[in-house]
Amino acid sequence: MNHVHTVTGLLSPHRVTGPVLTHEHLALDLRRDSDQEAVLSGTHHSAVTSELAELRGEFGLSLVVEQTCRGMGRDAAALARISRRSQVAVVASTGWYYEPFHLAEVAAAGVEELTEILLTEIEGGLDATGMRPGLIGEVGSHGERPSEPERRALLAAARAATEAGLPLATHAHLGRGGLVQLELLTGAGLPAHRICIGHQDLLDDPDVHRKLAAAGAYVAFDTIGKDGYQSDERRLRLLLALLDAGHAERVLLSCDISRHAYLRHEGGHGYGHLFRSFLPKARAAGIDDDLVDMLTRRNPLRFLTGSQGGEI
Question: In this record, what's one Pfam family (predicted)?
Fold first, then answer.
């Protein structure tokens, strides 16, 4: 079975005995003129570390997949410090977010050149740290169809993921465009089971969720607790519909903490909202402990390692 590349080295899936948060941010900077709060900088890292350590102690949190990539304020060295101090493993990422956050390199390069940029990071390490990413993501688009630069970034991500044997996670803005993303990525040769389509809990369309899962992709319900976008009650209804359709093995869950106001020490719902609020509601709706383990541990490990079937 493949190991997982973390910021502190290779991790055997057998050592991941507790839950995994599959889409989070621990260090990022998405500030633009219209939004100065979308940041998790050095002044917030102590609070981030404390939250993760607390979740490790209370719920056994074993691993966080950190999806901050190129142009999002990624800080690989900070991720390593947070991981060591919290004693929670962290997977780092490479790729390009959606177009408003693209670096200038995307506009100037073709698919082959962009692919080479990603492979250089995968093989040589992130941000001059030598740390290898374990994921390509969150690679984005922000409409029903990717823009031309987003299409090139997605194709490069698919090619790099295929060559390097890494999984790929997308940013489907407000949940839209996931089927087109999947078609583009699989058309470039990346198997569907190595792909996670992001933010599907923001799309109130169970038919799309079923189609993504039936095609073999992972379906991310990864903005849990962000009530300004969608209520958790509606998220739970959408999740139950996908489970009832027989696609439990294709669901990933997370909270996507992406601004400092979401941290618990600032009064936000925090990284633990999935465990403290959403999963108790899911259990009350009939989801048992084995299914919770599938959604929060076995599915993430299968996605990260490329395993299929009952290997984990």
Answer: PTE
**Exposed (0-12), middle (13-18) or buried (19+): which is 244, by Cβ within 10 Å?**
exposed
The pLDDT score that the predictor gives to residue 26 is 98
Which of 62, 67, 45 minimizes the C-alpha distance to 265?
45
- Span 235-244, average pLDDT: 98
| pLDDT for residue 311 is more than 70 | no
Closest Cα to residue 257, out of 47, 88, 8?
A: 47
Question: Helices 178-187 and 148-164: crossing angle, nearest 10°?
Answer: 50
Residue 241's contacts (CB-CB under 8 Å, 6 or more residues apart) are 206, 209
User: In angstroms, what CA-CA distances link 132 with 7, 129, 261?
Assistant: 7, 9, 29
Q: Where are the domains of the chain?
A: 4-305
Q: Work out the mean pLDDT of the chain and round it to a whole number.
A: 96
CA distance 116 to 122: 10
CATH number belonging to the domain at 4-305, selected among 1.20.120.660, 1.10.260.40, 3.40.190.10, 3.20.20.140: 3.20.20.140
Question: Residues 11-26: pLDDT tens digits?
Answer: 999 999 999 999 999 9
For helices 178-187 and 206-214, the axis angle rounded to 10 degrees is 20
User: What is the spatial distance between Cα 224 and Cα 269, in angstroms, rounded to a whole number?
Assistant: 10
* 3 state SS of 93: strand
Tokens of residue 21, six digits: 């948060």
Model-wide pTM > 0.85: yes
Phi, psi at 248, each rounded to 5°: -60, -30
The 10 Å Cβ neighbour count of residue 183 is 11
* Nearest C-alpha neighbor of 105 from the set 159, 162, 170, 153: 153
- C-alpha–C-alpha distance, residues 296 and 279, integer Å: 10
Q: Measured at the alpha carbon of residue 134, what is the angle toward residues 97 and 14, in degrees to the nearest 5?
A: 140
- Element spanning 221, H or E: strand 218-221
